[in-house]
UniProtKB/TrEMBL annotation:
Residues 157-199 form the Pyridoxine 5'-phosphate oxidase dimerisation C-terminal domain. The gene is pdxH. This is Pyridoxine/pyridoxamine 5'-phosphate oxidase. Transmembrane segments: none annotated. Binds 1 FMN per subunit. Catalyzes the oxidation of either pyridoxine 5'-phosphate (PNP) or pyridoxamine 5'-phosphate (PMP) into pyridoxal 5'-phosphate (PLP). It comes from PS1 clade bacterium. It catalyses: pyridoxine 5'-phosphate + O2 = pyridoxal 5'-phosphate + H2O2; pyridoxamine 5'-phosphate + O2 + H2O = pyridoxal 5'-phosphate + H2O2 + NH4(+). Keywords: Flavoprotein, FMN, Oxidoreductase, Pyridoxine biosynthesis. Its cofactor is FMN. Substrate binds at K51, Y108, R112, S116, R176, L177, H178. Belongs to the pyridoxamine 5'-phosphate oxidase family.
Amino acid sequence: MNFQSPPDNPITAFVAWLSEAEKTEMNDPNAMSVATVDDIGMPNVRVVLLKGVNDDGFVFYTNLESAKSNELSSSHKAALCFHWKSLNRQVRVRGKVEQVCDEDADQYYASRSRGSQIGAWASKQSTPLSDRETLEARVKEFEEKFADQKVPRPTHWSGWLIKPQEIEFWQDGDFRLHDRIVYRRSNDTSDWQTTRLFP
């Protein structure tokens, strides 16, 4: 990222930064915080893994009955934050969300390990769990159910696409004189506009 002459497309810059992070971060360079808001206006944030990025936006997968999915379904908005400590960089994203198509969800689900596929069936994500044994019993139940066959994708498991309307790049600087550039657009088809920000 050249902060004096930033590229027209922020996704290009993001992919370049992610590629660098993949070489320097010890664990999960694709980890991102996802912020949502519940039906009483209380914010929630958690870390998930980015599983796809292109000009349409940023994709992750989860249980559609989870707290985050319920909040995404209600507000249709989310914020993301990537922080790469090894590079002293951060990227923040805000935008609208929509569920990915079944074809994309099926394709990614098929690429997961069998254990993770079983886990998607066994976990009633975000609901109360009396003890660990209950979860382990559910895992065993679905292992037996799908023994000697492919594990199909549950209808309650899919992905979310965050379609960015704002992307901010932050690079640490000496004496806290950081570099910040924010890209904004009014809709999915409009051109990106850039603004340099005070640190």
